[in-house]
Every structure is written in structure tokens, then in C-alpha cells.
Design goal:
It is a single chain. With about 450 residues, this protein is α+β, with helices and mostly antiparallel strands. About 40% of the residues lie in helices and about 25% in strands. It is globular. The N and C termini lie far apart (about 60 Å).
Length: about 450
């Protein structure tokens, strides 16, 4: 607790009001949030933004007001109708209470992280605006602005925009709003989905789903069984500089993105895990390809099914297959959840057996980021030595995950490391199995990196 805590209320207005259905991306998040309710605080996304020197409290509050006014998704609530169906409600205006805590200068940064954790740790209710804000000050000067946004109102990609745009506003606290002129909001996205072009987009995605479902495995983790642990779902992550060097070096050598290389490594490891000749998983796709998409507010990411043939060929061949499969998945990642649910039911009826949609992969790796590849002849030994520094961290377990999900693999860039986490159902993967899977991925990537050091680069 700070030496001083105060609250400030900011009032904001919009340029339209109305109701609209949830977007397809919002429907996916809504279904998960409903499943986890009331404990869906893990859908809260946070950002800690340093306030430029010389910007006072009025400047911070004014920038925050302008920011919310420019982002309709932050001024939207999500009530349900008489049939229990959720929808978007955009009021003309509203207010937000902003907490300010004061700390000595040397404690401000750690206090900001602590406040962010507290604001993030409380689930949003559906009748409140999906944004929280706090300020950490030292004396009379604000030092950090904390934002927490519910996943219904932003996705990971959009949080990058949030940070960038908020920094711009804080750097111009004299009223220069820097409003984005060409901006789509979830209200616009929901309306577009009802139009012929929106239905055409979903139908294209349905064709991809049907093709993938025709060959989806009955059980991607076949034959595995374990005794459930006290918290049935366990999440463990590794922070690996060796993996970062290997993935990025292979990406340069094979002339693909680090994401493609990571998915190739993950596919091989998943196939080995379940004894499968194909890897089948749902891939998180950001759905932001055009300039307008990249600036859109809200959550537009959705999953798309991917099948990777693992039979025959070397690692380079798997990388090529991943590139092709991933391209098809990304081109078909905007879909109507109701229509896809019907397609899954139809596929299972035609096959006379269930399909396994329990494996998810979500990758957010930056091209060119991570640790630099050693140039000396002893580089391979150096990377092997780095494996001894790999961090293994066990996250707090949970009693549930998304309905039917048993395996959730995620990867992101952090400084010189790649952070890879796996949350799994301990009825199929024990905590020790999870650790081994992550270590096997690292070993596979490093082994391919070492083998590739002496191999020629890929052809254009």
C-alpha cells in the first residue's frame, strides 16, 4: 500500500451509441469467460507505461480520457438479452475511476508492477466498462500509468497499439490527440459480419475447417494416461536462450519466420508425444493483415485448424509443410462460431467418431529478436552450454481449462529468451511429462541448429 491513495474520476463521451451482436472473436472469448466464470481474470491484459518527465496529473488524466474516447471498445459493455444471448452495448458516455498511489521514487517501479497485478487479478463484471487504470506517483509527479483491459475489448496484438498510442498521447499532453482517422471498432466488425461479404469470409473458413476435420485424429494424445494431480491442469514454462538462438538461426537459414520454425519443432514433438504421423492443433491467428486491420480495436484473433504431415522427409521438409498448412490456416481464421460448431457436429456424424480439438498452439515470436547466433566454430558448444541455464518455472495449477482442451502450448519473445509454456490436463500429461515435453522441444531445436550449421542455406 502506498503512503497516499486517492481516486480521480474522468468522464468521457463517444460519437455514437447503439447495440450490436458480439463479433466472432468476442463470441469465442465470451464462451471461454462464461465457462471460467466467475474466475476469468486470466483474460485481463495489462500494460505498465512510464509517464514522460514533466507531464503532470492533469496531463495523464486528459490523455487517458482522450484515449478512451478514441477507442470505442473500451466504452462498451456486454449485457445479455431476455434469451441470455450476449451483445455489445455502446453508450454515449460514461466515467472511469482511476486510483493513484504515491511512493518514494526508488519504489515506484516495483509499486507499478504490484498495482498492475492487483488490477489484473480482479475479474471484470459484464456491466462495467472493460478497462481499469491506475497511476503510481512520486511526490506530485505521476511516474507510471497502468492499464488493464478485458480480453473482450482487446487482444494481444491490440495491446501493442494500446501501449504505442498511450505513449504518444502522454508525450503530447497539450491537447494533441493524435486520433487515428481510419479505425474499425468491434461495433463495425459485428455489422460487417452480417453483410454478404462477411458471410463469404465465414464460408471460406468453413471450407478449411471441413477439410481439416475430415482427417483430424480421434485422439492426438493417444494412449496416454496419468493420475490427475491435485490441480488437474498444470502449467509449466521454460525460459531458454538456447532455444531462441536455435529458432532464429534456423529461421534465417531456411528463410521463413521464427513462428514457422517453432511450429515445426512443436509439430514433431506433438507427433512423438502421441505416436502420431500427423500433428493436428488449433492455431491462434491474429487476423491483422491490412493497415486497417492492424489498427482495429478489440479482439479479432481466432483459432484455425492445422494439420502437419510428419511422415517422411527431414526437418526442412516439415518446415515447408508447416509453412503451407499455416498459410491456409491464417487465410481461413475468421469464422462464425455457430457455423463451425455445426460443421464439427456434422463431421463427427459422418465419421461416426469424435474429432480431437483439444490441442491449442499460440505463438508470438518477433522476427529478428532474441539472442544472437555465435559466429565462432565453438558456437554449437556454446549453445549446448546455454541449455544448462534454461529456467523451468511451475505456474499455479487450475481445476479447469477451456471446455475439452487438454493441451495449450504458447511461445513468446522475452529479452534474449523464448518463453514456452505448456498447460496440460494431468490425466494425460503429468507435471514431469510437461517438463520433459518442453525440454524435448529445446533439444530438438538445438539439434537441428547444430546440424544446420554445416549445411547450405535454403534456396530462394
Amino acid at each position: 500500500m502506498g503512503f497516499l491513495m486517492t481516486y480521480h474520476e474522468i468522464r468521457f463521451t463517444g460519437n455514437r451509441t447503439g447495440d450490436a451482436p458480439l463479433t466472432w472473436g468476442q463470441q469465442c472469448i465470451w464462451d471461454e469467460a462464461k465457462w471460467f466464470a466467475p474466475h476469468h481474470e486470466h483474460f485481463n491484459l495489462k500494460a505498465v507505461i512510464e509517464v514522460p518527465e514533466g507531464v503532470g496529473l492533469p496531463g495523464v488524466l486528459g490523455a487517458l480520457r482522450d484515449f478512451i474516447e478514441d477507442r470505442e471498445s473500451l466504452r462498451t459493455t456486454y449485457p445479455t438479452d431476455s434469451q441470455g444471448v450476449p451483445y455489445q452495448h455502446v453508450p454515449m458516455g460514461g466515467s472511469l475511476s482511476v486510483v493513484e498511489e504515491s511512493f518514494p521514487a526508488e519504489e515506484a517501479r516495483s509499486a507499478a508492477r504490484a498495482l498492475a497485478e492487483r488490477l489484473q487479478g480482479t475479474p471484470f463484471s459484464l456491466d462495467e466498462f472493460p478497462v481499469r487504470a491506475g497511476i503510481i506517483a512520486s511526490g506530485s509527479s505521476p511516474r507510471f500509468l497502468i492499464l488493464v483491459i478485458f480480453h473482450l475489448a482487446a487482444d494481444i496484438w491490440d495491446m501493442r497499439n494500446v501501449v504505442s498510442e498511450m505513449k504518444q498521447l502522454l508525450a503530447s499532453p497539450d491537447g494533441a490527440r493524435g486520433t487515428v482517422t481510419a479505425r474499425d471498432h468491434p461495433f463495425d466488425e459485428a455489422q460487417r459480419a452480417q453483410e454478404p461479404r462477411g458471410r463469404a469470409v465465414s464460408e471460406r473458413a468453413l471450407k478449411h475447417w471441413r477439410a481439416q476435420l475430415a482427417h483430424a485424429p480421434v485422439d492426438m494424445l493417444a494412449g496416454r494416461a496419468a493420475t490427475p494431480e491435485s490441480s488437474r491442469f498444470q502449467e509449466i514454462y521454460i525460459g531458454s536462450e538456447a532455444l531462441s538462438i536455435a529458432i532464429h538461426a534456423l529461421a534465417r537459414r531456411l528463410r521463413v519466420t521464427p513462428t514457422v520454425v517453432f511450429l515445426a519443432v512443436a509439430s514433431i514433438a506433438m507427433g512423438d508425444l502421441g505416436g502420431q504421423s500427423r500433428a493436428f492443433f488449433l492455431l491462434g491467428c491474429h487476423n491483422r493483415f491490412t493497415a486497417r486491420d492492424r489498427m482495429a480495436t478489440g479482439t479479432v484473433s481466432q483459432d484455425s485448424p492445422v494439420t502437419v504431415d510428419l511422415s517422411g522427409g527431414d526437418f526442412r521438409k516439415v518446415v515447408q509443410r508447416v509453412w503451407s498448412a499455416g498459410l491456409s490456416a491464417y487465410a481461413s481464421a475468421k469464422w462464425d462460431p455457430t457455423a463451425v460448431a455445426a460443421a464439427v457436429e456434422e463431421a463427427e456424424r459422418q465419421r461416426g467418431e469424435r474429432v480431437d480439438l483439444s490441442c491449442n498452439v499460440n505463438v508470438d515470436l518477433e522476427a529478428g529478436a532474441g539472442a544472437a547466433e555465435p559466429e565462432s566454430p565453438a558456437g554449437a558448444e556454446f549453445v549446448q552450454e546455454l541449455r544448462h541455464r534454461t529456467r523451468i518455472v511451475k505456474e499455479l495449477g487450475t481445476s479447469q481449462d477451456r471446455t475439452g482442451r487438454r493441451f495449450f502450448l504458447r511461445a513468446s519473445t522475452y529479452s534474449k529468451e523464448i518463453i514456452v509454456s505448456l498447460r496440460a490436463d494431468t490425466t494425460v500429461l503429468s507435471s514431469s511429462d510437461i517438463v520433459k515435453f518442453l525440454e524435448d522441444m529445446e533439444e530438438l531445436a538445438v539439434r537441428e541448429y547444430e546440424a544446420g550449421r554445416a549445411a547450405p542455406a535454403a534456396d530462394g
